[in-house]
């Protein structure tokens, strides 16, 4: 199962991170086209799961010519307890880009690709992060699986029938 290196939605482009991007993140460098507040702390944390050439890895969220945040899966799908391939997703935007529907649109773009491959998607979210919970609800994450070891809610999106 592979995903395209570049995904596009109506307003956004979602290119995979490159080795150069990750090196710049880790070195604290800013690239032309990156928002002044990007990368965020969570983006830097995601460099620990990045693997060169992994189409299921982190991506930039780009509006026009500006990277506003990131979205991506935490690696390739693996069979869940019921045998269905499943993957976890994470996303985040710089504060200035929040409230415009970009996170929802980016997540819907990734979900369309996961659906094409028959992969179920789950997400973990802080119980106090109402905005992220709304994004997940808008994108069809209806299964609440309880909490993980960090106290985050674990939600899943059933595969479309």
The mean pLDDT is: 96
Which structural class fits the helix and strand makeup? Answer: alpha+beta
Low-pLDDT residue intervals, each spanning 5 or more residues: none
Distance between the first and last residues' Cα: 20 Å
Q: H/E series, N to C?
A: EEHHEEEEHEHEE
Strand composition percent: 25-35%
Largest β sheet strand count, sense and barrel closure: 9 strands, mixed
What best-fitting shape do the alpha-carbon axes yield? globular
In terms of quaternary structure, what is this? single chain
Global Rg: 15 Å
Number of helices: 4
| Fraction of residues in H or I helices | 10-25%
Q: Care to count the β-strands?
A: 9
Characterization of this structure:
With 161 residues, the protein is α+β, with helices and mostly antiparallel strands. 24% of the residues lie in helices and 30% in strands. The protein has helices spanning 19-27, 41-46, 102-116, 130-138; strands at residues 6-8, 12-15, 58-63, 66-73, 78-79, 85-93, 120-125, 143-147, 153-157. Strands 1, 2, 3, 4, 5, 6, 7, 8 and 9 form a nine-stranded mixed sheet that branches. Strand 5 and strand 6 form a beta hairpin. The mean pLDDT is 96.
Layout: helices, strands, pairs:
Layout: E1 6-8, E2 12-15, H1 19-27, H2 41-46, E3 58-63, E4 66-73, E5 78-79, E6 85-93, H3 102-116, E7 120-125, H4 130-138, E8 143-147, E9 153-157
Parallel strand pairs: 6-7
Antiparallel strand pairs: 1-2, 2-3, 3-4, 4-6, 5-6, 7-9, 8-9
